Amino acid sequence: MEEQIQASVYGKIAEVTEDFSTRLKEQEERILNQVPEKNDMIEHIRVITEGSIEAQVHETATQVAHEIANSVATERVEQVLDQRLPEQDIEIKEQSGGGNIIWIVLGVLLLASAIGFYFLL
Q1: How far is CA 114 from CA 10, 62, 81, in A?
Q2: In 3D, which of 78, 70, 64, 65 has the Cα closest to residue 108?
Q3: What is the DSSP letter of 96?
Q4: Sign of CA dihedral 83, 85, 90, 91
Q5: Whether the predicted pLDDT of 27 surpasses 70
Q6: If you ran DSSP here, which 8-state letter would residue 6 be given?
Q7: In angstroms, rounded to a whole number, what is the distance separating the alpha carbons of residues 73 and 118?
Q8: Which of 7-16, 21-30, 67-76 has the highest mean predicted lDDT (pLDDT)?
Q9: Rounded-to-integer distance, Cα 63 and Cα 69, Å
């Protein structure tokens, strides 16, 4: 009798173990079918990374271009001012009216702005 009970218990344990193993394998297959292939994942990550790097490079290049344009425009304005101010100082001294200096300064500032915009575009 004891041997029959033991055989029955071992039989049930074997059935449950086999059933559990079968279900576990089925679940593993379902999960693996839902996960993209490794190569597809790598390609997807590569595309995203390249796009991100390209955007970063473009942004950096734009910033550098703006900085260079500003630097060139500033240097050019300084050169123009260095040339114009002594000439305008002589002209102002020759003229008796002091109101012209405002127009001269505004003209130089307008010229500097135009040069700056030219190099930015």
Answers
A1: 94, 20, 14
A2: 78
A3: S
A4: positive
A5: yes
A6: H
A7: 8
A8: 21-30
A9: 10
Instruction: Tell me the two tokens of residue 11.
Output: 């039989």
pTM over 0.85: no
Place of tokens 């109101």: 99
Which pair of tokens denotes residue 62? 């734009």
Length of the chain: 121
Question: Residues 73, 115: contact at Cβ < 8 Å?
Answer: yes
C-alpha distances out from residue 21 to 1, 33, 35, 73, 102, Å: 30, 18, 21, 76, 93
Contact 77, 109 (CB under 8 A): no
Separation between Cα atoms, residue 74 and residue 71, nearest integer Å = 5
For 85-115, write each residue's pLDDT tens digit: 666 655 555 555 555 667 777 777 778 777 7
Question: How does pLDDT run across 65-80, given as a tens digit for each residue?
Answer: 888 888 888 888 888 7
